[in-house]
Amino acid sequence: MPAPKRSAASDRSATRVAVIGAGKIGGILLEGFLEQKLLRAENLCASVRHPDRARELAARLPVSVGTDNRAAARRADVVLVAVKPQTVREVLEEIRPELGPGKLVISVAASVPLASLEKFVGPRVPVVRAMPNTPCLVRRGMIALARGAHATDAHLETAQTLFATVGRTIVVDEKLMDAVTGLSASGPAFIYVILESLAEGGVKVGLPRDVATLLAAQTALGAASVVLETGAHPALLKDAVTTPAGCTIDGLLELEEGRLRVTLIKAVVKAVKRAGELWLEP
Ligand SMILES: NC(=O)c1ccc[n+]([C@@H]2O[C@H](COP(=O)([O-])OP(=O)(O)OC[C@H]3O[C@@H](n4cnc5c(N)ncnc54)[C@H](OP(=O)(O)O)[C@@H]3O)[C@@H](O)[C@H]2O)c1
C-alpha cells in the first residue's frame, strides 16, 4: 500500500481511491470497485471535466464526484488517472502538489510512457501504467500492468487487486505496452467484427439474427474458455474439431482463401504501430 499506515494486507477496503476522468473506462472501473465491494463507497471519489457530467455520475453512483482534481487527489491513497492521453500532462501537473512518495498514481492512458508520467508527477512518486479493455464492463476484462521506477511490489499488488475486480491482470515489461494496446485493448473491436460476420453467416443460411448472434457469441466464449482453461495451443484445439472430410475443413478452407489469419495478424500489427505513434509529449 502506498501509505504505510494503510497496509494492503490489513484492510484493503480502507484504501482511498480517486478516479480522475470518470468517463467510459474510469466509470467502468468505479462500478467494478463498488460492485465487488473491494472499497467502501466513502473511500472512493471521482472527478470529471464538466459539472453536469459530475452531477449525472453522482446521481448514479454512491460516490462523491466533482470537478476539482486536486481535492480528489488530496483525499486519496491511489490516484487513478483515466483521462485522454492528450489531457494526461495537464491533469498530472495540476494534481502534482498533492502527490508524493506515499501515493500511488495509476494511469490507464494509452501510449503515455512511464518516463513521461514520472516526469509529470514529480520525483519519487510511484507510478503504474495500466492497459484495460472494455470487457471490464462485464468483469471479463484483460488488464496489463507495467511498473514505474518507484513502484514497489506492494504498489503493483495494489494495482492488481483493484483491476482484478473487473478482469484478469498480467504484469508486463513496459516495452510491451503498445503491443498489449493493439492486441487486448483494440482486440474487442476485432472480435466484434468476427462475431458479426459469423452471425451474418447464420442469417444467410436461415437463422433468425438473435439466434445467430447468440450462437456466435456463446461459441466464441466457449472456445476462448477452452483455450484459457486447458492452456492447449489453439491449432491443436482446431484440429480436434476438424473431422477428416467433414464440414469444418470446408469452412477452414474458405478462411484460408479469405486470408483471415494474415488479415488478423496485420490488424494487430497496424493497431500496435498506431499505439506507438499516438504519444507526442505536449
Ligand atoms: N475506452 C477504452 O476502451 C480504453 C481502454 C484502455 C485505455 N483507455 C484509456 O482511458 C482513457 C480514457 O478513455 P475513455 O474512452 O474512458 O475516454 P472518455 O470516455 O472520453 O473519458 C474521459 C474522461 O476524462 C474527463 N476529463 C477530461 N478532461 C478532464 C480534466 N481536465 N480533469 C478531469 N477529468 C477530465 C472527461 O470528463 P467529462 O465526462 O466531463 O467530459 C471524461 O469523463 C484514455 O487515455 C484511453 O487511452 C481507454
Describe this structure in words.
This protein is of the alpha/beta class and about 280 residues long. The protein has two domains: about 10-180, 3-Layer(aba) Sandwich (Rossmann fold); about 185-275, ProC C-terminal domain-like fold (Orthogonal Bundle). About 50% of the residues lie in helices and about 15% in strands. The chain has twelve helices and eight strands. Strands 3-2-1-4-5-6-7-8 form an eight-stranded mixed beta sheet, with helices on both faces. Helix 6 links the parallel strand 7 (about 140-145) and strand 8 (about 165-170). It is elongated and about 70 Å long.
- Helix-strand pattern: EHEHEHEHEHEEHEHHHHHH
Q: Whole-Å distance between the termini?
A: 31 Å
Integer average pLDDT: 94
Give the biggest beta sheet. 8 strands, mixed
Number of strands: 8
Helix content: 40-55%
Secondary structure tally, helices: 12
CATH 4th-level superfamily of the largest domain: NAD(P)-binding Rossmann-like Domain
List the helices and strands and how they pair.
Blueprint: E1 17-20, H1 24-35, E2 44-47, H2 51-60, E3 64-66, H3 69-74, E4 78-81, H4 85-95, E5 104-107, H5 114-121, E6 127-131, E7 141-147, H6 153-163, E8 167-171, H7 177-185, H8 187-204, H9 209-230, H10 234-241, H11 248-257, H12 260-277
Parallel strand pairs: 1-2, 1-4, 2-3, 4-5, 5-6, 7-8
Antiparallel strand pairs: 6-7
